[in-house]
Amino acid sequence: MANSIVLTFNGTVTIRQNDVALFNDGAWLNDTCIAFYHEWLATHKFREKSSVSFLDPSTVFWVANEDDDESLTEGLESLDLPAKDYVLMPLNDNCNPSLAAGGSHWSLLLYVRQQDAFFHFDSASSHNASVAAAVSKRFYPYLCDQCERDHRASCRNFTTVVGPQQTNCYDCGMYTLACSEHVADQLVGSGTFSLERMLEDVTPSFITKKRIFIRDLITELARQ
Length: 224
What we know:
By secondary structure, this protein is of the alpha/beta class.
């Protein structure tokens, strides 16, 4: 059956044949691809690490475009973001609130509580810089508890990180996922981060292998 369901992961992400095909070389990842791997990182690789939160792109998009603060407070409560040391947010350049699955470029926004700072990793130089700055400003109050929220309007610490750069027009989603996992590996493991190590590890050949890994992961999970 055309584009049939391959896997429903954790009851939250439904992956179809067309989504799996996007992990082949040369394809641009959609929201479902990003959401799946972040969900897998959160519930499998980092399941015992309560200090880190891997958000799905739909949540990031919702927060960026929702004007009702009461709705946001209620909707984000279950994520317990004020208790997280690290929050990883995949975002894209979709500026149309009525088109939830739009956009053409992915990047990663990281919040580090100890430094009270945002860090933006963009594999296409600063393509998403303005989007990331806007999302960080919108998200910040919901990363704090209520008493903090009443006294801090916005976070002034925003840094653009010159991280690994893609060498084509389609690997932005893969670099976003690879950087997200690499950042979490370092910060959760040691509490420190080395950009030099990331630049050494996250290379075009690494991205190619990661595509195969995720595609095979979906196949394995579907068989269980």
